[in-house]
Structure formats: C-alpha cells, structure tokens
C-alpha cells in the first residue's frame, strides 16, 4: 500500500492514497472508511493510477469548514478532477461513496469516462413507510455485521489490539457518517429522478449475499434508473464485495473497462 | 440556597426487563395504559402543588420515547403549573434546543408560560441525553453549534420589541420574527443551562447563566464549577455568586436513616431501570472523538460511569449522587458536597421515581422542607471568592 499524500482542493485538505500508473481511477470509500477499500486498491492499481481520497472527516482528513453534505462532497471532487486536470477518469464508489459517485455523475461527466458503483446507496426506492436502508444508528454492531457481510466473522474487530490512531480513525469515520448520512438517511430524495442524466457507461457491482440493501430490491432499482447500466452479482460477498472479493470485483471492472 | 422538587413523571409498571431490549427509544407503547397514565399525571401535578405549599420551588424536565419520563412536551405541564400555582418559581430544565426544529416556537412557548405565571418562569436550555437523538431523529453531530444558534435566536426573539427581525443562520431561517406575547420578566426569564463537562461550563460562564450539574458527584461537579469560575476570571468578569450553580441528586429524607435509605433505594429505579443498548447511549458525534475512541478500549468503565453500570445505594451515596437518611444526615451530606465544590445556590431534588408511592413521596418532601431546608436557605447569599 502506498503512503498517503496531502492534497488541498479549494482550501479543503485531503488525505489521498496514490497507487499505480496509467489512466486515473478515483475510488470513493463508503461509510466504513478508507480502510474498507484498502486491499481492493492494490488490485485496482493493476488497471491504472489509483487516487483514493479520504472524505473530509474520514480517516485523517480534517473536517471540512463548510462541507457537511454529500452534495458538498460531490462539488469538492468535481473541483479535484478539474484542478488536477484529470481526464478519461474511471470513477468507482462504494456504498456511501457510490451515492457520492452518482451525485457527481448527475452533475458533470465531462472528465469521467466510466463509472463503477459498488452497492451504492443514495436513492429512495420504496414508499414512505418502507425502510430501504437499515438504520445503522439503531442497530447493534453484531446485527449490522450480519447484514453487511457474507461472512460476518470478518467484521469482528478486537479494539484492544488497535492503536490510539486507529481507534481515533474509527471514531472519526462514525462521526463523519452521521454528519453526511443522518438525515435524509443515506439518500437524496431527488437523486433517483436525476439519474437519467448519467450518459456514460455504468457498471453496478453487488454482493449476492448483501442483506443490507439487496441486489434484487435496491440494485435493480438503481440499475433501472441509469440508462444502459449493467448489474453484476459477486458471489460470496455481502455489502462490501470490494473487501470480501477484491480480485473478483477487479476482474469485473477490467472486463467492463475493456468492453 | 433554593430547593426545587423534581419528578421525571416515569411510567414504572413495566414487564420484566428481560422482555425488552431498551426502556428508551424502541419500547412499544402497548405497555403504556393511558388510564393509569392519566392518574399518574394528576398525581405528579398534585405533588408539585404540595411542593409549593411546603415552600419548595418547582422543576420540570423533558424526554422523548421513554418510559422513564412521560413529559415529551414540558411546556404543556409547565402551562398547567403556571395556572395552578401562585408563588413557586417554575424551572423548566430544559428545552432541548439543539433538537428543536423551530427555536422561535420555543421562544413563544416560554414567553407564554412566563406571562401565565406572572413572571415566575426560569427557562432552562439543555443539550439532551444521547438517547434523545434517535428518539427525535436529530443529527448527533455539530450539536453545540446548533444549540448556540438556537439560543441566540430565542434570546433575540424575547428581547426584540419593535417589529420583525430577520434570521438567516446556518441552521435556522425565519424572516419575520416577532413573537406575541413577549415575556413577562424583563429583559427575559432567567436562563439555566446544564453543564456536564468543563468545556460546556465555559460558554455558560461567559453568559453568566445558572450552570446545572446532574448526578456528576464530587469530582465531576467540582471540575465543572471551577471551569465556570476560571472562565469568568479569564474574561475579567465578576466572580459568580453561589446562585449561578445548581446540583441535582436523588434525595430522600426519612425520620430515621433507615427510612431515608429505603426511600432512596426506591429512587434508584431511575438508574437501575435505565436499560439502553450501546447504539442509543453512544450515537456517533455525540461524544468527542477522543472520548469515543477511549470508550472502544473499554475505558468507559471507570469512575462515575462504572457506577452507573452497577448501581448501588452505597456507592451512589459515597460519590454524592444520593443524599439520604434522617434530616441531620441529609443536611450533613449536602454540606459535604457544598463545601467540596465551592458552594452552590440551588439543589434540584429528584424526589420521586418508580415505585415510590404518593404518601412516601410527600413524606420525604415534607421532612426535607421542614427539617433540612431551613438550615440551607441562608447559604445562597454566600459569594464564593
């Protein structure tokens, strides 16, 4: 894993992992924080130059002065693409990061060539009394793990073995998640009706055993909202297929990029 | 010193705690019988009126979606008390203003109660306990910012008398603020704020409001009050009088120590019945990052927090969370806290809980009011150097 660098975009400081060479691949992590994408990044680096920022408030990135919504984050990363003059970008987003990637894509895809959404959140599918996304703020850690992982044992963390820095990052990731996703809960009520604007090739990757947001319910709704999008299932993976099956995910992405 | 009778209006007739995960947020309200609830409401209002007869002041608070407290709208109970009482000061501690969608509504409610009560309202603002966030769908992050913006808006609404003003803040927008009625007291009712940490005490000190500590024990209370005094000194402001400080404890006065302890054991229901899972006690962003990281290491199991996990009357009395016994014992215990923390001008008496029946509640209040309170009253005028 490459060392993190520090980028400043419009006054906002970001911890960014750069890894590999070739065409730019921007990877947006989800609510579980930058580390939930770490092993995946090594595989993605075989496809191009990975650029993986920690969103403000996550990892070691400082809280953003006036950044407190996913909408704010989407403009921050559009600024990042422009300031670094990145072109022909592959944009990958996981869960909360998938929501963020979709918010970026409905605004401007001038610098983006292809999008990969890994179990993205962000849209409202059911009626007002249907809880599309489980309320992680009202569930025990065990229940969240059961829903998010194909193998829930993988989620077990022995906090006593973590350094103070690692514990601080876990606490910051949780707080940042509450900041961005508390209300409306992990979605933008307007996003679904805007997804028709996404006119570049889009691949959705979904864990076949995702019990957090299922591919049958949430995944197909997402796919149907984006013109021409394809939904691929990853066996033996839950809501974090990039963590449970990184090599298989990257193989799907490789085929998608070469298509 | 002023003494305030306080009850959480709990609904205590619950099934065995093994049958539910949490007494807060998720406990189904099929366990609540509104006919019994109506009797309880009337009983607790009667007890507040008895408090007034006994020369005690009155305090009301607010929680949501919990059997531990059936006042989800404290201004309503306060409206009743404003009409039913005539002399007692009425403390609402408090309005959870970081969790209110519309602070102007809070300004209106409090002004209305103050007018009804002909200027007897003491208006408290609280951040609220962590379980309130899920209960009210309120974001736990940036609460301090929201709290103080709401405070600023309420204070301006109370003190503006020349027509509408404009408010387009970070959290609240209201273009024509012009409340009717305005408060009875001028320029506005006295303000109280709960302060459970030295950091929060500093901001309360800057405004010179009353800082109230709840069950923070000897050391926690001392740290908070000292932080208040230090901040005043830093700013070159006059040292605070004792009436800027309040302490809340479970208090039961009996004829004998044994009777006092028996009453206090029933009050311990507050703590013993507070079965709440981690996701509601520790919502992300409520506690500072450093504290949240420490909690993951299991460091929360120290000091007062450890006591709450395994409550006993002995440890609560030892740490100054419960004052109980015969009148002499209760007086001695309060004075020990008073001297340890540098004085306070208000004692908030959590005097009813759980299975403490009406007669027992009134007996404890009466013994306190008649045998303990007279010895405390003059303390309030002491200015702490």
Number of helices of chain B: 15
Strand order of the largest sheet of chain B: 1-2-3-4-7-8-9-11
Q: Mean pLDDT of chain A, rounded to whole units?
A: 96
CATH superfamily membership of chain A: Alpha/Beta hydrolase fold, catalytic domain
Name the quaternary structure: heterodimer
Helix- and strand-based class of chain B? alpha/beta
Main sheet of chain A, how many strands, which sense, barrel? 8 strands, mixed
The CATH topology label of chain A is Rossmann fold
Q: Roughly what fraction of the amino acids of chain A lie in strands?
A: 15-25%
Unreliable stretches of chain A, pLDDT < 50, 5 or more residues?
A: none
The ordered H/E elements of chain B are: EHEHEHEHHEEEHEHEHHHHHHEHEH
Backbone shape of chain B: globular
| Helix proportion of chain A | 25-40%
Short recap of the structure:
The complex is a heterodimer of chains A (259) and B (385). Chain A has 259 residues and is α/β, with parallel strands linked by helices.
Protein architecture, described:
- Chain A is an alpha/beta fold.
- Chain A is built from nine helices and eight strands.
- Chain A has an eight-stranded mixed sheet, with helices on both faces.
- The longest helix of chain A has 18 residues, at 164-181.
- The radius of gyration of chain A is 17 Å and the shape is globular.
- Chain A starts with a strand and ends with a helix.
- Chain B is of the alpha/beta class and 385 residues long.
- Chain B contains 15 helices and eleven strands.
- In chain B, the strands form two sheets. In chain B, strands 1-2-3-4-7-8-9-11 form an eight-stranded parallel barrel, surrounded by seven helices. Chain B has a two-stranded antiparallel sheet with strand order 5-6.
- The longest helix of chain B has 20 residues, at 34-53.
- Mean pLDDT of chain B is 94; it is low at 381-385.
- The chains are: A alpha/beta (259), B alpha/beta (385).
- Chain A binds chain B through residues 68, 137-141, 159-160, 162, 164, 167-168, 170-172, 174-175, 177-179, 182-183, and chain B through 25-26, 133-134, 137, 139-142, 277-280, 283-285, 289-290, 292-294, 296-298.
């Amino acid at each position: 894993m490459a060392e993190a660098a520090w980028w400043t975009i419009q006054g906002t400081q970001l911890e960014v992992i750069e890894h590999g060479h070739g065409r730019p691949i921007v990877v947006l992590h989800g609510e579980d924080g930058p580390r939930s994408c770490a092993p995946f990044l090594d595989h993605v680096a075989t496809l191009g130059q990975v650029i993986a920022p920690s969103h403000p408030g996550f990892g070691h990135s400082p809280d953003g002065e006036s950044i407190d919504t996913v909408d704010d984050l989407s403009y921050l990363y559009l600024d990042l693409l422009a300031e670094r003059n990145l072109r022909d970008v592959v944009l990958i987003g996981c869960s909360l990061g998938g929501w963020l990637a979709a918010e970026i894509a409905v605004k401007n895809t001038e610098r983006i060539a292809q999008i990969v959404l890994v179990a993205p959140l962000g849209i409202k599918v059911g009626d007002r009394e249907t809880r599309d996304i489980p309320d992680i703020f009202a569930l025990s850690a065990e229940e969240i793990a059961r829903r998010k992982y194909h193998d829930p044992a993988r989620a077990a963390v022995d906090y006593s073995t973590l350094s103070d820095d690692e514990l601080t990052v876990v606490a910051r990731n949780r707080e940042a998640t509450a900041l961005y996703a508390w209300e409306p809960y992990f979605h933008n009520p307007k996003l679904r009706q805007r997804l028709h604007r996404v006119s570049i090739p889009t691949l959705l990757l979904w864990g076949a055993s995702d019990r957090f947001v299922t591919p049958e319910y949430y995944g197909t709704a997402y796919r149907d909202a984006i013109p021409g999008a394809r939904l691929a299932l990853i066996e033996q993976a839950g809501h974090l297929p990039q963590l449970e099956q990184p090599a298989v995910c990257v193989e799907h992405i490789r085929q998608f990029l070469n298509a | 010193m002023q003494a305030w009778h306080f009850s959480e209006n709990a609904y205590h007739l619950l099934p065995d705690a093994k049958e539910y995960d949490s007494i807060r947020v998720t406990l189904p309200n099929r366990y609540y019988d509104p006919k019994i609830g109506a009797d309880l409401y009337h009983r607790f209002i009667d007890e507040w009126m008895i408090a007034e007869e006994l020369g005690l002041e009155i305090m009301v608070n607010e929680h949501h979606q919990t059997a531990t407290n059936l006042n989800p709208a404290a201004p309503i109970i306060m409206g009743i008390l404003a009409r039913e009482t005539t002399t007692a000061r009425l403390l609402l501690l408090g309005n959870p203003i970081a969790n209110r969608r519309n602070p102007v509504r809070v300004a209106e409610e409090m002004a209305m109660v103050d007018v009804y009560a002909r200027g007897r309202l003491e208006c408290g603002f609280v951040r609220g306990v962590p379980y309130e966030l899920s209960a009210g769908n309120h974001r736990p992050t940036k609460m301090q910012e929201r709290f103080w913006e709401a405070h600023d808006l309420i204070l301006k609404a109370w003190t503006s008398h020349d027509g509408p003003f404009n408010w387009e803040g970070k959290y609240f927008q209201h273009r024509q603020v012009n409340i009717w009625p305005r408060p009875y007291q001028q320029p506005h009712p006295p303000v109280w704020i709960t302060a459970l940490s030295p950091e929060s005490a500093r901001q309360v000190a800057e405004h010179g409001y009353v800082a109230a500590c709840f069950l923070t024990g000897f050391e926690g209370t001392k740290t908070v009050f000292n932080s208040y005094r230090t901040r005043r000194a830093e700013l070159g402001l006059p040292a605070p009088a004792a009436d800027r400080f309040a302490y809340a404890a479970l208090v039961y006065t009996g004829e004998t120590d044994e009777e006092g302890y028996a009453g206090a054991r029933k009050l311990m229901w507050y703590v013993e019945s507070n079965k709440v899972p981690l996701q509601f006690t520790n919502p992300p962003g409520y506690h500072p990052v450093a504290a949240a990281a420490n909690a993951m290491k299991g460091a929360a199991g120290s000091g007062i927090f450890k006591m709450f996990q395994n409550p006993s009357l002995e440890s609560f009395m030892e740490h100054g969370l419960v004052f109980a016994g015969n009148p002499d014992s209760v007086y001695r215990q309060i004075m020990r806290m008073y001297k340890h923390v540098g004085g306070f001008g208000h004692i908030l008496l959590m005097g009813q809980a759980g299975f403490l029946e009406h007669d027992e509640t009134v007996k404890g209040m009466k013994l306190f009011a008649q045998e303990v309170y007279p010895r405390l009253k003059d303390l309030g005028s002491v200015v702490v150097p």
